[in-house]
Design goal:
Blueprint: H1 8-34, H2 39-49, E1 56-58, H3 59-66, H4 70-82, E2 86-90, E3 98-102, H5 104-123
Antiparallel strand pairs: 1-3, 2-3
Helix pairs in contact: 1-5, 2-5, 3-4
Length: 136
């Protein structure tokens, strides 16, 4: 797809989508930092709690969810551990696997932030939409 196949309204739709996406990201950054954590720390907590079918995740699963390098994810987990938000546990099934679990403080902060994000997303209903860009 080249720019010659996109119309002015296609570019406008893409621009509006990116604008609304960035507005939501900015909102998220502001409320997260007001809680005393970084946006990446919030995402780590969210991905642990939201991991499918269980309440913990491995380091490699979190790295994938964060789209981050393994060593960067390990450093992020270490910082969150130092803040009392998460803890690492060796798996009872496979001692080579390390599980990352939320602690009470992490659960509390995450619950407060998730509610703020839910309210903000509801306020964007009908505004934040996926643009329909057709290839001609």
């Amino acid at each position: 797809m080249t720019s010659s196949t996109l119309s002015k309204s296609d570019f406008a739709a893409l621009s509006e989508f990116r604008y609304q996406m960035r507005r939501f990201e900015r909102f998220s950054e502001d409320v997260v930092q007001a809680q005393g954590i970084t946006p990446l720390q919030y995402l780590l907590l969210l991905h642990i709690k939201g991991y499918p079918e269980r309440d913990w995740a491995t380091v490699s699963e979190l790295a994938e969810r964060l789209q981050a390098k393994h060593h960067g994810t390990v450093a992020l987990i270490t910082r969150c551990e130092a803040m009392g938000l998460v803890e690492r546990r060796n798996s009872a099934i496979d001692r080579r696997r390390v599980e990352v679990h939320l602690l009470r403080k992490g659960e509390t902060i995450l619950a407060q932030l998730a509610e703020q994000h839910r309210v903000e997303l509801l306020s964007l209903e009908g505004i934040f939409t996926i643009p329909r860009i057709r290839h001609e």
